[in-house]
Amino acid sequence: MLRVDEILRRDGASDELRSVINHILVGCKEIAHKLSQGELAGILGSTETENVQGETQKKLDVISNDVLKHILKQDPNVRGIASEEEDNTVAANDDGKYLVTFDPLDGSSNIDVNLSVGTIFSILEAQGEGSGDNMELFLQSGRNQVAAGYVLYGPSAILVLTTGKGVNFFTLDRHIGEFVLTKEKVCIPEDTKEFAINMSNQRFWEKPMQDYISHCLQGEEGPLGKRYNMRWVASMVAEVHRILVRGGIFMYPWDSRDPGKAGKLRLMYEGNPMSFIVEQACGRSTTGREDIMDIQPTEIHQRVPVVLGSKNEVETVMRYHQEG
Ligand code: AHG
Ligand code: MN
Ligand code: MN
Ligand code: MN
Asked: Which atom number of ligand 1 is nearest to the Cα of residue 250?
């Protein structure tokens, strides 16, 4: 039985990086515990507040954010944090080497119906000096990530983690309170016949995405020549996990309703960490026109169109964008 920290040591992660990851995981175990209590702890439902994304916050969005913020501020290796649920970046410890960005609770519309949710995190090195509440420190491309991961809170809690040496799965053993290795060097199948997209937004997409999905729906008689299946959990963590396990393509594309026309998902908390994981697991990740991890961020809460998953299928979507 191998614990996360043993794998991190084996893969040559520094003491400082291991400390940051282990602190995040303490927070995730606490979130897993609270989620399992649900109604018993009176933590379902919404607050009366809106986050900076313009979303009404669920009680558990706020609780999960507070759990992670509190634990990360205690780690001397953390310079600062940025979160989907925080308006601004938050300073932790001035001598810390690392910056942590996170989506404390992903798929939070699923909480009240007792379906899968997750936590997504990304770790960057702070370049140079300066307090961790300086937003400029965080504006690094996804290629600079030193680690990324998510915890899927489903029937079991599963940690998926990369430090740039492939992707491993760890399952939370609640008896010993540790994530233990359950699958190594995960590789997403190159081809797929399963897509995931919120079809109700179809009329707001660009033409290349409209064409691709309509060709998927035409099945073996259409130009793609395959009969497709569709899934939509409305929780990116669950969606990406399914793709890591059995292949598939996930899309939250450009959408004409958004002010920045970039779709719904956030680059720093969702796009970049998931792209790092997917690329480390033999997959591909793009906006349709460029690799997500090549984007130079200009704002911590910026949004990004996301197309990721099985390599050949993602490249098919990229061809629709080149031609369209
Ligand atoms: P969050 O709960 O962190 O705000 O993220 C929700 C995201 C993502 O998990 C999911 O893919 C997508 O929103 C679902 O959006 P729709 O409700 O538009 O389907
Ligand atoms: Mn949200
Ligand atoms: Mn999210
Ligand atoms: Mn969230």
From this structure: 11
